[in-house]
Amino acid sequence: MSLAWLSNGFYRACEWITTLAYLNFLWAVFTLAGGIVFGLFPATIAMYGYIRMLLQKKSPPPLFSYFWKTWKQAFVRGNLLFAIFAGAGCIIGLNLLTMQQLEGPLHTISLVGTTIASILFVIAFVYIFPVYVHYDLSLKASIYVAVFLPFSHPLTLIISVAGFLAIALLFFILPPMLPFFAASCTAFVIMTGSMFAFRGVRTVNGS
Question: Which of 167, 171, 175, 178 makes the best surface tag, with the fewest CB within 10 Å?
Answer without folding.
Answer: 175
